[in-house]
Write a structure and sequence with these properties.
194 residues, alpha+beta, three-stranded antiparallel β-sheet, 5 strands, transmembrane helix, transmembrane, membrane, TLC domain-containing protein 2, TLCD
């Protein structure tokens, strides 16, 4: 991440440094191993989160059943294995404060707050990207249909609208004019015009 994409990887670098520091403390001291095992429960959600990113990379439409089912599992496991697990971890730190050194307690609270903040930001971005209502097709003012599509840019889904002129429709397939105004190019999906 440092070599290839430092600009977009700072958040993940902070996350990984904190995780390595906390797990390193557990491994080196042989303490807090049960706590560390509980912390690994968040990785259950990573299965669906990374599967979502792979589907976006491979161009699977957000309207497909596979994407929607994964989206539901992603949100459910996010709440159970990230939000609830980290909530329990925070509660454990507070209830065992008297048994922990100041360094361990401070590192634990700081790391959890930072990672919880990142998790809520991630949950908001996923929710906004996958569940915010958007029109799939519509009409523009010049009587051309609009086609909504998304592509992955730096790990985030970015949406855009393309004008589809109904006069280019041929045998049920829509043709989308190139931005430079040259001859139309066939789209890979059938666009239904109203």
């Amino acid at each position: 991440m440092v070599v290839h994409d430092l600009k977009h990887s700072r958040e993940l670098l902070v996350h990984h440094c904190l995780v390595i520091l906390c797990f390193g403390l557990s491994v080196c001291t042989h303490y807090y191993q049960g706590y560390s095992l509980v912390a690994l429960l968040v990785e259950v959600n990573s299965i669906f989160l990374h599967l979502r990113q792979m589907m976006l990379l491979y161009g699977i439409q957000k309207t497909s059943d596979l994407y929607r089912y994964n989206g539901i599992l992603n949100i459910v496991t996010f709440v159970i294995f990230r939000v609830f697990t980290m909530g329990w971890m925070f509660q454990w730190l507070l209830s065992h404060r008297a048994e922990l050194t100041t360094t361990v307690f401070g590192l634990g609270v700081f790391s959890l707050l930072v990672i919880m903040g990142m998790n809520f930001q991630l949950l908001f971005r996923v929710w906004k990207s996958d569940y915010k209502k958007r029109p799939v097709t519509g009409k523009s003012s010049d009587n051309q249909s609009l086609k909504y599509s998304e592509k992955l840019v730096n790990g985030e889904a970015v949406g855009s609208y393309t004008h589809v002129d109904p006069s280019y429709a041929l045998n049920g397939k829509a043709f989308i004019p190139k931005p430079d105004g040259d001859s139309p190019t066939p789209s890979s999906k059938i666009v239904k015009n109203d």
